[in-house]
């Protein structure tokens, strides 16, 4: 394995996964993902997080290539999710005298997933671990993305080992540092990683950003995706915008339709919103596009309009799946419109109303429901819904460019 240094004696040990289709067995990763671990070689040797278990053999070999017969003294556990702790047990077997470094919430996870740890070192905010030339300081950032998550700040070179925070989907295709790659490729992948994985925990992310602002950080090394060393603001501004629900002028329109009648209603709305001058309009068929991508645009745009055909006296199942995901993530401050279609008993709009009550977004117009093909009167109502959404969106200030 070609060695990649973040600084003298600090190594990148990342592995690219181009085989897995679904991250967490939920989220599509057509461009793969990387699992990044880091090795610091000093008077004491420390690993920062490990990798997914599929890469254990190559990971152990890569460590040995660098340190030979020396022992690893510490395993810093910033995050226990198995995509990063997958090689923990193998590391403990290979280096039985190793000390696991974590916080008061970490070791319960170690025990429930792997084993009762023998040698542990409990850390807290501002705690410093001295490796020799390199001093490691710890800060807790709970719920970014699990309760035990923390970051490790290497004070000598001012590198923040940030865990999931500031990570991205997408493999490292040769380039590893932000100045080695065209970031256009990562624009969507970084945001999808954020919205899909961390999106539920925006308030916690905001707290973490404020807390870490006190550190003089020169490099951010996350557990997925590029290492940020040239333009830290690229990633920091985006995380700040997304986690503060700073939404742009635009609308996401999603529908579930079997025979095209609900789709026609969606397209009528979309056309009228465009006529009113709104340019960011994304229309999705919930049966075709995975929630991962739709959620991403919901975190981007202020407006959300959802339509559902009735199905077995309920909502269309693919729309229901999306709305359940939205309810779990509970993004804030959206404008909402709902519509639907039925053939006999209904069930689509009825359940959309329940969603609207739970999510508590600002309803711009009353729910609209059609029976069968769209009639002129319903079309007029849909245009009123579109106008009501456009009116609100046009009141928004122009978005700040990032
Ligand atoms: Fe990349 Fe929360 O694990």
CATH architecture of the largest domain: 4-Layer Sandwich
Helix percent reads 25-40%
Total number of beta strands = 22
The computed structural class is alpha/beta
- Largest beta-sheet details: 7 strands, mixed
CATH topology of the largest domain: Metallo-beta-lactamase, Chain A
The rounded distance between the terminal residues' Cα atoms is 36 Å
What sort of overall outline do the alpha carbons produce when their principal axes are compared? elongated
User: Radius of gyration, rounded?
Assistant: 24 Å
Q: Which residues sit in consecutive blocks of at least 5 with pLDDT less than 50?
A: none
Specify the number of helices: 12
Walk me through what this model shows.
This protein is α/β, with parallel strands linked by helices and 402 residues long. It has 2 domains: 4-243, Ribonuclease Z/Hydroxyacylglutathione hydrolase-like (Metallo-beta-lactamase, Chain A, 4-Layer Sandwich); 249-394, Rossmann fold (3-Layer(aba) Sandwich). Helices cover 34% and strands 26% of the residues. The protein contains 12 helices and 22 strands. The chain has helices spanning 56-67, 82-85, 88-94, 106-113, 184-198, 202-212, 232-243, 261-275, 291-298, 317-329, 348-359, 376-394; strands at 4-7, 10-17, 22-23, 27-28, 33-41, 45-48, 74-76, 99-102, 120-122, 128-130, 135-140, 150-154, 159-163, 219-222, 227-228, 248-256, 281-285, 301-311, 314-315, 335-342, 362-363, 368-371. The chain has a 7-stranded mixed beta sheet, covered by helices on one side. Strands 16, 17, 18, 19, 20, 21 and 22 form a 7-stranded mixed beta sheet that branches. The longest helix is centred in the last third of the chain and has 19 residues, at 376-394. The chain is elongated. It starts with a strand and ends in an 8-residue tail after the last helix. The model has no long low-confidence stretch (mean pLDDT 97). The structure holds MU-OXO-diiron.
């Amino acid at each position: 394995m070609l060695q990649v240094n973040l600084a003298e004696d600090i190594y990148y040990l990342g592995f690219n996964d181009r085989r897995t289709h679904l991250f967490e067995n939920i989220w599509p990763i057509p461009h793969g993902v990387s699992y990044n671990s880091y090795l610091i070689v000093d008077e004491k040797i420390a690993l920062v997080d490990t990798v997914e278990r599929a890469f254990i053999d190559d990971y152990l070999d890569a460590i040995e290539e660098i340190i030979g017969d020396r022992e690893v003294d510490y395993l810093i556990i910033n995050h226990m999710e198995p995509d990063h702790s997958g090689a923990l047990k193998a590391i403990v077997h290979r280096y039985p005298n190793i000390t696991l470094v974590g916080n008061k919430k970490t070791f319960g996870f170690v025990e429930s997933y792997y084993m009762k740890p023998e040698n542990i070192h409990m850390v807290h905010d501002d705690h410093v671990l001295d490796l020799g030339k390199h001093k490691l300081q710890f800060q807790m950032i709970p719920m970014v993305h699990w309760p035990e998550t923390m970051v490790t700040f290497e004070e000598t070179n001012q590198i923040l080992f940030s865990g999931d925070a500031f990570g991205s989907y997408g493999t490292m295709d040769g380039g590893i540092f932000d100045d080695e790659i065209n970031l256009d490729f990562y624009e969507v992948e970084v945001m999808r990683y954020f919205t899909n994985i961390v999106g539920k925990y925006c308030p916690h992310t905001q707290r973490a950003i404020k807390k870490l602002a006190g550190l003089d950080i020169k490099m951010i090394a996350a557990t997925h995706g590029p290492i940020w060393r040239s333009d830290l603001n690229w990633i920091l501004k985006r995380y700040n915008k997304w986690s503060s629900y700073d939404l742009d002028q635009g609308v996401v329109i999603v529908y579930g339709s079997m025979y095209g009648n609900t789709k026609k209603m969606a397209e009528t709305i979309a056309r009228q919103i465009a006529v009113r001058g709104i340019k960011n309009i994304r229309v999705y068929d919930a049966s075709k596009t995975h929630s991962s991508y739709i959620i991403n645009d919901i975190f981007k745009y202020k407006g959300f309009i959802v339509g559902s055909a009735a199905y077995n006296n309920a909502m269309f199942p693919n729309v229901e799946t999306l709305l359940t995901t939205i309810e779990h993530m509970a993004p804030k401050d959206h404008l909402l419109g709902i519509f639907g279609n039925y053939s006999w008993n209904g069930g689509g709009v009825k359940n959309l109303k329940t969603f609207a009550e739970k999510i508590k977004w600002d309803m711009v117009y009353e729910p609209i429901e059609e029976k069968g093909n769209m009639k002129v009167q319903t079309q007029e109502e849909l245009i009123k819904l579109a106008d009501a959404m456009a009116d609100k969106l046009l009141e928004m200030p122009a978005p700040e460019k990032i």
